[in-house]
Write a structure and sequence with these properties.
It is built from 11 helices and no strands. α7 packs antiparallel against α8, α9 runs antiparallel to α10 and α10 runs antiparallel to α11.
């Protein structure tokens, strides 16, 4: 009789070779022998995610998590599914959970920053202050994220906090010198400041 470990190992090799259909069959065969097999559930989630079948990817990733509640891989996989579905808030919660278990998890750190920037953009029109907090938290986890600096600068610019906007635009181009929008926005702020100073000088005449 073939062991569950052998079936999962064969499934992993087939998955690596790109034969997802046969890999899925082996994982399901393993689950017939042991329905509570974490490795099979986790890998099924990964295969279905790669295939674009997000509902089944989420189903198996959640089962893997229920079997191993401290699995950072299961948590990050669920977070990634939520992120791709556009549920950035839930995705961020899963990445934070993964980082509580393993603070040095690079995948969770990177994806959390990305999700927070996306969440900030999603809620910016309705809740600009919370959006700013999202961009700031993203930078706590990824201090070199040019996109987070840019959106933080844009948020401050819309609030007419031009000094803070310029600081963040400068940091944007420091970490990504090709970020054309940041240069453009700095130019816009500079022209506004020039007009304001000229108007002030005329008032003094």
């Amino acid at each position: 009789m073939v062991s569950t470990a052998a079936l999962v190992d064969l499934g992993n090799r087939l998955k690596a070779a790109g034969d997802w259909h046969s890999a899925v069959e082996n994982y399901y065969d393993a689950l017939q022998l042991d329905p509570n097999l974490y490795a099979a559930q986790l890998n099924l989630g990964a295969v279905f995610f790669a295939a674009g079948d997000l509902p089944r990817a989420l189903e198996h990733s959640e089962r893997a998590y229920s079997l191993e509640p401290h699995s950072t891989e299961a948590m990050t996989n669920i977070g990634e599914i939520c992120r791709v579905q556009g549920d950035f808030d839930t995705a961020a919660q899963w990445y934070r959970a993964a980082l509580r278990v393993w603070p040095d998890c690079e995948a969770a750190t990177t994806q959390l920053a990305l999700s927070l920037v996306n969440l900030g953009l999603q809620i910016k029109a309705q809740d600009p202050k919370r959006a700013i907090k999202c961009f700031q938290e993203a930078l706590v986890h990824c201090p070199t994220n040019a996109n987070a600096y840019y959106n933080l600068g844009a948020s401050y610019g819309e609030l007419q906090k031009y000094d803070k906007a310029l600081i963040n635009y400068n940091l944007t181009v420091h970490f990504d010198p090709r970020y054309a929008e940041a240069y453009n926005n700095m130019g816009v702020i500079d022209r506004k400041s020039t007009r304001l100073n000229s108007s002030h000088d005329l008032d003094l005449v």
